[in-house]
Amino acid sequence: MTQKARTSPTGGPQAEAGEEPDAAPAPIEEAVMADEETLKAGTVPAADAEAQAMLVDVEDQRIVQVRAALTALMQTGGTAAAQRKRPQVFVSAHGRTLVLPARSTSAPYTVRDLAAVEDGRYLRKLKDGSYLLGVHVFVADGATLQLRGPLTLRMGSLPGSFSSVIAFGGDIEIRGTAERPVRITSWDVRTRRPDRTTTDGRAYIRAVGGNFEMEHAHVSHLGFWSGRTGGIALTGTERPASEYRHRTKEQRHRDKRERLAAAGTGRGGSDFGDVETSPIGPGTATHVLADELVSGSIRHSTVTGDAYGLFVSGSSQTRIIDNEITGSLVHGVFMHRFTKNAVIEETRVTGSGGDGFVLSRATEKVRITKCVAERNGHNGFTLNGRALAHGPSASGESLAVFGDSSVNDSVARDNGRYGIEVLGGTRLAVHTSEVVGGDMGVVVREGASEVQISGNKLVDQRRQAIALRDGATGAHVAGNTITGTVTGIYVRDSTGRIVGNKITTLSKPDAHGITVIGAADGTEITRNTVAGSGTSAISVARADGEVDKRDNDEERWRDTSSFWVKARRYVKPMNVIWAGVILLVVVSALRSRAAVERRRSRAGDPYGPQRVLEERPVTELRPAGVNGTVNDAVNGTVHDTVPGADRAARADGARRRQPSLTGHAVPAPTSGGRA
Fold first, then answer.
1. pLDDT confidence of 631, banded at 50, 70, 90?
2. Which intervals of the chain are annotated as region Disordered (predicted)?
3. Which letter does DSSP use for residue 12 in this model?
4. By CB distance 3.0 to 4.6 Å, which of 55, 93, 393, 537 could disulfide with 201?
């Protein structure tokens, strides 16, 4: 018979120890979680978003207050400090916290130690062998919390009241085996199920500095809103770790006498209290000291339904190997600021609301190998090497970009946006990986430089398999195999070497093997093999600058472009200018010739108005009575009585004589001056 529930230490009802669960109730609302993009899209109401953000701030304040109170107690020294080196509960306006201070020995704290505090008030063992945690746990600097399998830990998580396990400078070890794993989940005692609602906060685990080790664990439904409260979080700290535990009693007293003697002398100290300061060295305002970076490893574990599957920032030498991360509300594996020299191997992320794997800004030398990102809502892998600032900023960030990270031998399959996206940075690489489906395969943009994309296999992208866009420079795209996409390699306002790729596109009218658009001066396209049919095998008609295109195999490409498309390939700015100049010369010449013809037609024959010279028969005047010719002196009329034959002979002789200007023959003078 089910016993009546009573109020838990976290403020809500909980099951009695040994209580058998009732029949499973109807599922409560699905978990609600979002990052900035989904919040802007209206997925999370503004009131819920504000409530979650406020809870994150409350958690930050609680952690700082607990650490400050513990440090103050330990610095008192003597018997009081010795008595504090045991589990104890701190109470504040932000809730109860079970504090585990550093012990005098190296022995770790265990579940048994937690269950012994106030006779199991905060950690109670249930009938099924599991433990219910009803308080925040704080592992102090120098202490170690060890959770060994087989173990099932249910972390109380109710509206506005939840538990957490936080190490601040201390260590957390969660170790099971394949047969005897450690199981950790949030737990709502009202529904007797894991807490799936994040709008009112949810249980989480976090290591701030120190070391975190987890092996053969099954973790589910932890975290809310931010990365540091996102589920399992490994974060560095800008607050120096206490060196108090590394010094003897005599050394501590000597240090105190020196500080007091120096007070007010200008050599250090302060008149307002016993405060010691020391320089932190060069760096930006967000620089994390090397000795405050968190380290650790997560191996052979599964994480299901967390806000962030795994969140890491301010870390060095972190190892994430052979894990399964499913159904994260935001991102699967998120490597945040100042994560360096990390290794992520053989880890699978599926069904995340955001990206599968994220290397955020200020991450360097992170190697992702043999990992799988499948069916995530956004990208499979995101590598972001952009600078933290682009000019003077309030926090004084450096303008340097980040890089030297890579994705190797991995798979991105059927993700909602891109398979792999590279944003800015330098010397980022994608090698021998496979990208299946998605809108695009590998996208390089935001001014990324010297990106290496080689030996990859890309299949069935909806638009472009590989895209170099928006100022990418010095990219090296070589030895990739691309099939089943509309555009194999797309270059826009970017430069690089595209060498030795094998591309087989879909048979579509708008298909391209390789296309280059915009500023691409210095780009090299050589020894590529392009097959398929569409607009063009390799198109550089719309590129500005000199593109070295040679030794490419296009024999298996069938050009289906129209006449106008082919014509546009040659319509380049310089070609248009020269064609215009030539056309202008030809038109000017034709117009000049036409103008000459028109003037000629209007002027006519210049000799046309002049009178044509007229030739008349020659008449010889002779005295009257000679050869039968009668001269009529009165009217000047000459009557020719000469026969026809003689007249012809005379006319022939007259034509030999020079005509006068009036056309009349000049008569020969006769003797006596008379005609």
1. very low
2. 1-25, 240-275, 623-675
3. S
4. 55
The pair of three-digit structure tokens given for residue 277, joined into one six-digit string? 């300061």
Nearest-angstrom CA–CA distance, 452 and 474: 9
DSSP state letter for 606: T
Asked if residue 668 has pLDDT above 80, the reply is: no
Structure tokens at 667: 């008569």
Reported as a pLDDT band with limits 50, 70 and 90, residue 250 is low
The residue among 20, 47, 45, 22 whose CA lies nearest residue 34 is 45
Output the pTM of the full model: 0.74
CA pair distance 358, 320, nearest whole angstrom: 13
Q: Report pLDDT for 599.
A: 72
Inform me whether the pLDDT recorded for 282 exceeds 50: no
Q: From residue 110, give the alpha-carbon distance in Å to each of 15, 87, 172, 175, 218.
A: 23, 11, 10, 12, 18
CA distances from 560 to 461, 504, 535, 540, 555 (A): 21, 15, 6, 17, 14
How is residue 188 annotated by DSSP?
B
In the chain, the amino acid numbered 263 is: A
Both tokens of 350, joined, read 């599926």
Please compute, for residue 586, the number of CA atoms within 13 A of its CA located in the half-sphere on the CB side. Answer: 6
* 3-class SS of residue 198: coil
Token reading at 301: 């574990």
In contact, 526 and 499? CB cutoff 8 Å: yes
Helix residue ranges, H only, 404-498 = none
Whether the predicted pLDDT of 273 surpasses 50: no
Q: Which of 428, 492, 505 is nearest to 460 (CA)?
A: 505
As a whole number of angstroms, the distance between CA 570 and CA 576 comes to 9
Mean pLDDT, to the nearest integer, of 515-525? Answer: 95
Min mean pLDDT across 6-10, 34-38, 488-492 is at 6-10
Q: Distance (Å, rounded) from C-alpha 469 to C-alpha 8?
A: 56
Three-class SS of residue 73?
helix
Task: Report which of 483, 480, 488, 484 is spatially closest to residue 536, judged by C-alpha positions.
Answer: 488
**How many Cα atoms within 13 Å fall on the side-chain side of residue 467?**
23
- In this prediction, residue 434 carries a pLDDT of 98
- Tokens of residue 166, six digits: 């936080």
- Phi, psi (degrees; rounded to nearest 5) at 248: -75, 170
In the predicted model, what is the mean pLDDT of residues 541-551? 92
Number of H helices, E strands in the chain: 8, 53
CA-CA distance, 404 to 408, in Å (whole number)?
Answer: 13
Residues in the chain: 675
Kindly tell me the burial class for residue 650, based on how many C-beta atoms sit within 10 Å of its own C-beta (0-12, 13-18, 19 or more). middle
In terms of Cβ atoms closer than 10 Å to its own Cβ (0-12, 13-18, 19+), residue 186 is buried
Mean pLDDT of the chain: 80
For residue 150, cis peptide bond before it (omega within 30 degrees of 0): yes
Task: Look at residue 148 and give its three-state secondary structure.
Answer: strand
Give the closest residue to 39 by CA, choosing from 353, 459, 487, 501. 353
pLDDT tens for 353-367 read 999 999 999 999 999
Q: What mean pLDDT do residues 113-142 have?
A: 93
Using the structure block, give the residue that is written with the tokens 């173990």.
151
Q: What is the pLDDT of residue 244?
A: 42
Q: Residue with structure tokens 């020299």? A: 341
- Per residue, the 3-state secondary structure of 285-342, as one string, reads CCCCCHHHCEEEEEECCEEECCCEEEEEECEECCEEECCEEECCCCCCEEECCCEECC
Q: Can you spell out the DSSP letters for 358-406?
A: EE-TT-BS-EEES-EEES-SS-SEEEE---S-SS--TT-------B--E
Res. 246 pLDDT band, cuts 50 70 90: very low
Contact 426, 450 (CB under 8 A): yes
Is the pLDDT at 650 greater than 80? The verdict is no
